[in-house]
Amino acid sequence: MSELATLSHITHDNLVHLIGGCVDGPRRMLVYEYMDNGNLAQNLEEIHPRIVHRDIKPTNILLDLDLRPKISDFGLSKFFPDDITHITTRVAGTLGYLAPEYAISGHLTRKLDVYSFGALLLEIVSGKKVVDFDQTLGEQYFLVERAWKLYKSDRLVQLVDPVLMKDDGNVEEAERFLRVALLCLQQKSILRPTMSAALKMMNATTASDEGGGVVVEIMEPGLIGDFMAVKIGRRQQDNKQQSSTTTTTTEGAASVL
């Protein structure tokens, strides 16, 4: 019912309209406007800074009959009062779209959706999934890591979907979008642009316009493998501590007996 509560407070052309809802015993249903087309991406500028969606991904961006994108699925969204910069909450969302500070500690800010948007933008331009399995290498494939490696070696254009490579204008625009995506994916949330700034950079016509006349340095993004390792390391440490406590208690009990 959290989705019903959220959508009852907001209306916008880029949000899927909630028509009604019903609670019948254990069954809960929400009725939305019918969306004629598939999934794509659209900006989050209109719902920020009041709301953090927490689950921005391709399947939650729908297209209507006129191909207008609309954001859906507000079941995980959080309201952000103007005087609040962050909250700590239970981690929820989809692997590959979660910002590292949130995935590791539940530290939620408005920049979480910016990170998710960056991952989504990489998918759109590259035509690849943000997390996939590489049959050739026999291991998981992380799109953010791939983009960062190509950027560092000045080969970012190799990530562009071949379908877009047929037009030189498309290639230039696609590269710009990839750079904006990497900015949105910065490891430190303070370095990520606001959605408003990201949109301005995407609409820029020159390199100087892209940064608002200022050179914007792209730093290392938040890599999935890194913060997964942190969480695994913490879990192992917790297990060791728990095991140590159990052993001590058992030994103490044995000595008493």
Give an overview of the whole structure.
The protein has 257 residues and is of the alpha+beta class. It has two domains: 1-80, no CATH class; 85-236, Transferase(Phosphotransferase) domain 1 (Transferase(Phosphotransferase), domain 1, Orthogonal Bundle), CATH 1.10.510. Helix content is 39%, strand content 14%. It contains eight helices and ten strands. It has helices at residues 2-7, 100-105, 111-126, 143-152, 168-184, 195-202, 207-210, 224-256; strands spanning 18-24, 27-32, 51-52, 61-63, 69-71, 78-79, 87-88, 107-108, 131-134, 139-142. A hairpin with a 5-residue loop joins strand 4 and strand 5. Helix 3 runs antiparallel to helix 5 (168-184).
Described by strand count, sense and barrel closure, the largest sheet is: 2 strands, antiparallel
Cα-based radius of gyration, to the nearest Å: 22 Å
Strand content: 5-15%
Structural class: alpha+beta
Name of the CATH superfamily of the largest domain: Transferase(Phosphotransferase) domain 1
Share of helix, binned? 25-40%
CATH topology of the largest domain: Transferase(Phosphotransferase), domain 1
Membrane topology: Single-pass type I membrane protein
Subcellular location: Membrane
EC number: 2.7.11.1
GO molecular function: ATP binding; protein serine/threonine kinase activity
Summarize the structure.
This protein has 257 residues and is of the alpha+beta class. It is built from 8 helices and 10 strands.
Q: Can you tag this structure with a few keywords?
A:
disordered C terminus, alpha+beta, 39% helix, 257 residues, Transferase(Phosphotransferase), domain 1, 2 domains, two-stranded antiparallel ribbon
